[in-house]
Write a structure and sequence with these properties.
The complex is a heterodimer of chains A (92) and B (271).
Chain A: E1 2-6, E2 20-24, H1 28-38, H2 42-46, E3 57-61, E4 64-65, E5 81-86
Parallel strand pairs in A: 1-5
Antiparallel strand pairs in A: 1-2, 3-4, 3-5
Chain B: H1 6-11, H2 13-16, H3 22-31, E1 33-37, H4 43-53, E2 57-61, H5 86-97, E3 102-106, H6 115-119, E4 124-127, H7 132-145, E5 148-155, E6 158-165, H8 175-178, H9 198-217, E7 226-231, E8 236-241
Parallel strand pairs in B: 1-2, 1-4, 2-3, 4-5
Antiparallel strand pairs in B: 5-6, 6-7, 7-8
Helix pairs in contact in B: 4-5, 4-9
The chains are: A alpha+beta (92), B alpha/beta (271).
């Protein structure tokens, strides 16, 4: 399944500056591993040592938070878009 | 019938002519009490537009002074006010723009001891602060007092905005449903790494003002249960759904946060 992943600006340096990348994965867990192998550094930012999603980064499959779907076991289908949305605090 | 002066009818004509606003809506705006926390990149445009719209009572909170490095984006301040408290500078701009607005300034840092007192008299709170501990504090205080909170944040070329309606706690998700607690230091971009394109504040702050005015007037669909994410590099605006989290520590079924928590400031570098 070709999945489009939208990368927020704070994490783009991990993806050579790209705002959007495409990876092959059947579920979120696979997608995180695929991201990590293509762009090392992503995994530790998305999940903790136990493989649980970090609580200050949310992943949205299309427009739904995957925590309200099946978490990292959420299945993916061709053409899905996954958005990485980290907590940001700037009001500057 | 609305007790507007001729000058006010002229001033607000472009509002009053809108069917969604009309005289009734403009009257509501003139009676609204809105608090803007942070007179910086987000607060500047938000305060400007709320003042221009004729918001009756406009509270402004900031502890900082105007610095040269602020002027790239904090458009409510000017060169000759460098060194002046930001709330004072913001109040000067508001008064010069619209004498109808009653400006109340709070030249203080929001903390556990003063937050409830400061926000209790306002209907709508705009969060334009620049750190997680303060954002969590404002959120929890708004939740406990049942206020409407228009929360925006930005970084580099990106912005996020949503509305939490704590007048309807049963149905509205809260900030902690989105992010249960502040991130630990080191795992999100540090202050030193961060930067911001000045005009991003203009976009996000203007959306904050728009959402606040919609709430006052009672028109349209506010961003309640929706998070709007803006990426200015691709100029892409996306909305995702925010759901009420049953396990939320503040509003969930077994919520354990019953009083205000003051988290440690993890970054003391000011922009």
């Amino acid at each position: 399944m070709a999945i489009t992943v939208r990368i927020p600006t704070p994490l783009r340096r991990l993806a050579n500056g790209q705002g959007e990348v495409t990876v092959e994965a059947k579920n979120i867990k696979e997608l995180i591993d695929a991201l990590e192998s293509a762009y090392p550094g992503f995994k530790e930012r998305l999940v903790d040592e136990n493989g649980e999603l970090r609580r200050f980064v949310n992943l949205y499959l299309n427009d739904e938070d995957i925590r309200f779907l099946k978490g990292i076991d959420t299945e993916l289908k061709d053409g899905d878009t996954l958005s990485i949305v980290p907590a940001i605090a700037g009001g500057f | 019938m609305f007790d507007f002066t001729e000058e006010q009818i002229k001033r607000y004509a472009r509002h009053i002519i809108l069917p969604e606003v009309g005289g009734v809506g403009q009257k509501k705006i003139s009676q609204a009490k809105i608090l803007v926390i942070g007179a910086g990149g987000l607060g500047s445009p938000a305060i400007y537009y709320l003042a221009a719209a004729g918001v009756g009572t406009l509270g402004i909170v900031d502890f900082d002074k105007v610095d040269y490095s602020n002027l790239q984006r904090q458009i409510i301040h000017t060169e000759d006010r460098v060194g002046m408290p930001k709330v004072e500078s913001a109040a000067m701009t508001v008064k010069a723009l619209n004498k109808d607005v009653n400006v109340i300034t709070y030249n203080t840092m929001i903390n556990k001891d003063n937050v409830m007192d400061i926000i209790k008299d306002y209907d709508i709170i705009l969060d334009g602060t620049d750190n997680f501990p303060t954002r969590f504090l404002i959120n929890d205080a708004c939740y406990f007092l049942g206020k409407k909170l228009v929360s925006a944040a930005m970084l580099r070329f990106e912005g996020q905005i949503t509305v939490f309606n704590y007048e309807d706690k049963e149905n509205s998700p809260c900030y902690r449903c989105l992010f249960p607690e502040p991130p630990p230091p080191g795992l999100v971009p540090t202050c030193q790494e961060a930067g911001i394109l000045g005009s991003i504040g203009g976009i996000m702050g203007a959306i904050q003002a728009t959402e606040a005015l919609k709430l006052v007037i009672g028109c349209g669909e506010p961003l309640i249960g929706k998070l709007l994410i803006m990426d200015a590099l691709s100029m892409d605006f996306r909305k995702v759904n925010l759901r009420k989290d049953k396990s939320c520590p503040l509003c969930g079924e077994n919520a354990h946060i019953k009083e205000l928590i003051e988290y440690e400031q993890t970054c003391d570098v000011h922009f």
